[in-house]
Write the structure tokens for this entry.
Amino acid sequence: MTSYPSLHMIIDGEKVSGGGRRTFDVVNPVTGEAIGALPLAEAADLDRALEVAAEGFRIWHKSTPQERSAVLQGAARLLHERADDMARIATMEEGKPFPEARLELMMVVHLFEFYAGEVFRLYGRELVRPVGMRSTVRHEPVGPVAAFAPWNFPLGNPGRKLGAPIAAGCSVIMKAAEETPASALGVLQALLDAGLPKQVAQAVFGVPDEVSRHLLASPVIRKLSFTGSTVVGKHLAKLAADNMLRTTMELGGHGPVLVFDDVDVEQVLNVAVAGKYRNAGQVCVSPTRFIVQEDVFERFRDGFAERAKAVKVGDGLLDGTQMGPMANKRRPEAMDRLIGNARDKDATLNAGGSRIGNQGFFFQPTVLSEVPLEADIMHEEPFGPVALINPYKGEDEMIAEANRVPYGLAGYAWTNDVKRQRRLADAIETGMVGINSHMIGGADSPFGGVKWSGHGSEDGPEGVLACMVTKAVHEG
Ligand code: NAD
């Protein structure tokens, strides 16, 4: 039986807690009750972390690729060994079903394994110059990174926020979400246990705006990496501008899914429904707007609603649960508001629409159809278990709807027409496109958006290069 661990920060390798610091109650979303008290950083804690991060960069930017690779490989091995316990803790904090949490941890394992190899491939290039002269272009680690990770992937987000700077030779101060601290601490602990010098990666928690203002104002920090909402991302980008920091911004989405009338509707539903209700829809690349060609609209809508009603919702630690509660109190409140507003604007409710029970943060898998553009949910990222299904005539109209919103993270399309598949891959304005597939990531593939969904990539070679700067050296 896994029990929920005691909570702390990790500054200079030390577990920091108590000392009269303010605390934050970590809540189990199944019950809504507190399971842990998280210490929050005071200004002095952040100053200490900054000083240590400066030292960490001096140490780690001189590390060999072999040293970095060994740490990443070692951490991957430890995470694999600790997977069951860590996944259970993630479920206790965030609510997602245990198998989803375990899969998420395995994605961190694969990312660290990929980066363990990638550190040997951070090539520069030599320019063609006359004999006797030499010009080279090289990548160097950018410096200490401030990284902010949200709660929806309590293991995966910290894995990304720590893995890339460490592979690049940077130091990093991570502030993971206060709602899911134990998972983030578990990922960092595995890196420290695998031999990462204690100055290189640290974890602080706090009042988010206090922490980000403090860290980003420091001359020590050279890069901001943020995952979260577009509103907060814009705010942090402005703070980062004052110190001209490099930024990686992985922000919200409003995933379009184009479904054409030449597909096997049942096959698409099998993938789309599972994708929609994964992590109770609290996924930045969640399929959200189903843009369905009119000939298959009714069949698609009815099949979706039927499957939504059959999704088994419950405690993520129990066998057979397909969807857990939402992660925190704010999410069902947002669902009530967005669904209520859509119904006021004459959207049809085909499934769900309400909270389940009066304990914890459970919400029904929901389907809304014929949702008018005037509804807030057609513009605002729902970040919850709601599918929006509307009928459209043909390709041009469907592409226009896909690109209507200012977001551009992930887009999906289903069609068996090969030429149309290519047109759609070109036309959909998102950082990631899935054609006849909702699998759009992987350790070796860049993950990131365009437009209001942010800029820069995580994962893949691009994720490490985002923590590096370019230097051109010309020798006469
Ligand atoms: P939020 O926007 O307040 O917070 C999102 C994340 O940003 C949290 O982890 C929070 O701790 C952090 N944060 C907030 N203010 C910050 C600040 N000033 N400095 C540093 N970090 C800060 O909202 P929320 O209620 O936690 O989540 C709601 C919305 O956030 C969702 O509707 C969704 O749009 C977005 N979100 C996106 C992702 C993603 O993967 N892109 C993940 C989580 C949340």
